User: Fold these one by one.
Assistant:
Number 1:
Amino acid sequence: MLTGVLIPSEGIINAPHENEIVYQLQGIPFLNILKGKDIVSLFLKSDVNKEISKITMESFHSLDTREKELLERLWNLPVGKMSLGEKRWLIVSLICQMDRKLYIFDEPTSGVDPDSRIKLVKRLEELSKKENTLVLMSTHILHELEYLDCILYLLHNEKIIFQGTYNEFLTLTETKNPDIAFYKLTTSI
């Protein structure tokens, strides 16, 4: 319904207030001269649901040693000198620090290295387990869904062609490869 793929026939949608929704854009619309710490400050200080007086690297929670090292490296680095994956990791990690009811991620792991991708996907799953929280994620990397406890909605030509679990998706198409499964479903239409 949000995108016009589903047309409502009747009823009321109880959506969260706009202050309870956060959307991660595909692009990174920031000036290249801003530094990592500026982006962190912008995100965390704009979180109307949290009161933060001072932004430091310790403002992040649940980062492992490697992620803390990455954050330290990005802290004073201008956005224009960050790789696409570094920018994406920073933005998605920041969004996960925010307190919302609805999180919408548009290909959050695109361009991110394998280690960081695994950690981001795990963070998104943890986020989805919070009470009264919904996480929507679009992806073209179907393999990363294998370890997520989630419901898949596969879209093709503006129609939902599958709804179910990852295992149901593979079973339906009699393959263990999700890319082949998607191909089978989209070419049989």
Number 2:
Amino acid sequence: MSRFFARSAGLGLPGMAIAGAFVIAWAGPAAAVPMADADPASRADNRYCAVLVGKDADPDAPSSALAAACSDTSRDDARTKMRQAAERTAPRAEAASSDLLMTWFDDAHYNGSSTDIYGDSGPCDSAGYEIQLSTTWPWSWGNTISSAAGTETCDTADFISQSGTYARTFNLPVPYIGNTLNDNVRTIRVWND
């Protein structure tokens, strides 16, 4: 049983039904994402994006987006631009921004546009990172994500539907998140299992 389901179980819900009470209480990101680098339209026009997320002091609070950037050239170029944005908005985070947590893809089987997610608090541990796409994200990934890859230290993820009524845990990578979650994700929690 994942930690996410363990936290939800206390709410008296069936195993796959998830209440959003602990994820919707968060008011906003800890630092603003430079919109010149993370224009919402830019993800649609670019193939590669990179986002730096931070952990909240409250272990039950979602991670916040600290910096973001996109590139039509390469993943490396997107990462470089993200690091430059991090230097402007979250200087303490820049040094650790080399810790790749996971990569999201528009299409099944790791195809289409992609976004690399980096953690400012180092690689995944058992607490991991919780990313709320509906409130902390510079783009509408919740409406496009179809597959995801992890890393050696971020190998498991919970995907929760936009309505909060369905969740599924995957070992990463996952070539297709399934019909119910495809283009329908509100929250992703990634950790090392």
Number 3:
Amino acid sequence: MIRFKKLFACATVMLIAYSPANHASTTGVLDSGNPSFVTETQISLANFGSGFMLLATNANAPITFNLENPDISVTSTTASFQLTAEFDTNGAYVTNSGGLRIYGELPFPGVPDLSLSGRLLTADLENFTFADDKIGFSVVNQGGFSTLFGQLETVYLSAIGIASTLGFSSAALITTSNPVAAGAVASVPIPGAGWLIGSAFGVFTLLRRNRTSLESAC
């Protein structure tokens, strides 16, 4: 549950409409639409049962949340990012085995002296895809504070040659002796991210706001 660090009379939350003109990026990661979470991660791939477990964490790196309209970004140095996913012996993703969790404290976008603490984003990872320099998942069952601003559609990790480094290109996964550094973005993809076209990543949808509930809450 999200806790408001400072009480206030009433705040109007505006839903975000997707626009390719607004985007976020980080080192080694393609531009993506907003809203988005952006951070740097350390990736490990280890034997797990008869298959493999992929783990990506931000290892204390800052996490930035970007709104789309107005163009507002806020950064947390205390939030944690964790992505986990299982793969079989042939390097195929075990469908719906993965999850994305972002917890911690984050300044409330556009509202000075107000912060949110707790579950910033939780989601299940539905489908998997990769290209030379990136691996990614479609996101479903999203929860947490980010649902106030719209639904994210994807999360991807990006670094030069990451698909080959981890063995996805050859369908023979390679366990890591040392973590692999990669940028991470959880967001709405823009059309320019052509590697996602034809995959199972959905179309951007807006959260319907229950106006009556909001007004009564205020």
